[in-house]
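REQUEST ID: PR-0412
SUBMITTED BY: lab tech R.K.
PRIORITY: routine
TASK: structure prediction, single protein chain
INPUT:
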Amino acid sequence: MEIYDDRGLQWAATHATAGRRSEAASFAARVPPDATRIDLGCGAGRYLPYLGRPAIAFDASSVMLHACRAAFPDALYVQGDVERLPFTRGSVGGAWSWMTHLHVARDRLPMALWDLHRVLAVGAPFEVQVLEGEYEGDALDGDEVGGRFFAGWRPGRLGDVVAGAGFAVEDGSLSVSGDEVRLRAVRSRTLADTVGEGMRMLVCGVNPSLYSADAGVGYARPGNRFWPAALQAGIVGKDRDAADALCAHGMGMTDFVKRATRTAAEVTVDEYRYGFDRVERLVRWLQPGAVCFVGLSGWRTVVGPRAVAGLQPEEIGGRPAYVMPSTSGLNARTSLEELTGHLRRAWEVGGGG
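STATUS: complete
OUTPUT:
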C-alpha cells in the first residue's frame, strides 16, 4: 500500500465529499442496532461518518488510517489486508466496501469474500462497488493516483461470485452506473465457495447441511466420510480445512445449491437447475482440472437420470466431470475404502496424481 501512503492523501483531498452519502446512510439503517459495522478500505474517512456506530475503520495504509482517525476519533481503527481479515467468525454485523475490492485480482476475489463471509454474522448486510469492465492491471487510463491495481467486473460474473461466497444478492440491487458495478447482499446461513485459479479438482456437493453451514466447512458432521476419505486418498493435508485444501493442495469446493437444509431431499428441481448453471459458469471461468460431484442426485436431476458413479460422458464447462456416491454416514452401503477410491480416481482425472 505504498502508493496510498505516498499519494493517497492528495487523492482524498480532491474527493472529500461523499458521493454516495444516501447509500451509506441506507446501509447504516440496515445494520442491526449496536452491531459493529466495518468500512473496508476506509481511506481518509469519506463514508465513515454516515455508516453509523459502532464502526471499524479498516485500511491497509497507515497514513490513510492516521488521517481518518484525526478527523473521526470515535471508531476502532485496524490496519490490515482485505483478503485476510483479522476478526473472529461472526463478529461483524455489516460490511461496506466502496471501491475497495476492485483492488483484488479477479481470481482471488472468491477467497477474499469467503473470508468476509467468515467474519460476518448471519443476516449481516454487505454492499460493494467495483469497477465495471474487463480491465485488470496497474496501468488504468485515468487513474488519478497512478500505478494502482484494478480489476473490472461484469455484473453477471460479480453476482455469481458474491452468491457463491454465501451471500444472497438483493433483487434489483445489481446495477451499473457509469464505470461502476454495485450490489447489495446479505450474509446467508450457508457455506462460501473456496475456489481460485489453478485448481486441480473442484469438489461440488449437493448443498450444505445446516450443521456444516454453522461449522463453516463442508461435510463437517462427524459421521460424514468425505474428509477421512480425502485424507486417506492423499489429496488434502488437514481435516475439515477447505481453505488449506485449496491453497496447499489445489482442491476447491462449492455446491450445486447454496441454500442450506437439514437434508438434500429439501432441494427443488429448479434449485438444482439454477445451481448447475452457476457451477458451469464457475468452471468455464476458472477451468479446474476436473469437477467431482459428491452425491448422484444433483447430476441425475440435471444431466443424466441414469448416471452411475465414475467419469461421466458429459463435461461441465469444458472440463471432465466425475460423479461419486454420497459420503454421508447414512450411505452405509458405500465403504470408506470405496469413497477413497472414487476421490483418488477423480483427482487423477484432474491431473493431480
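NOTES: The mean pLDDT is 94.
REVIEWED BY: pending
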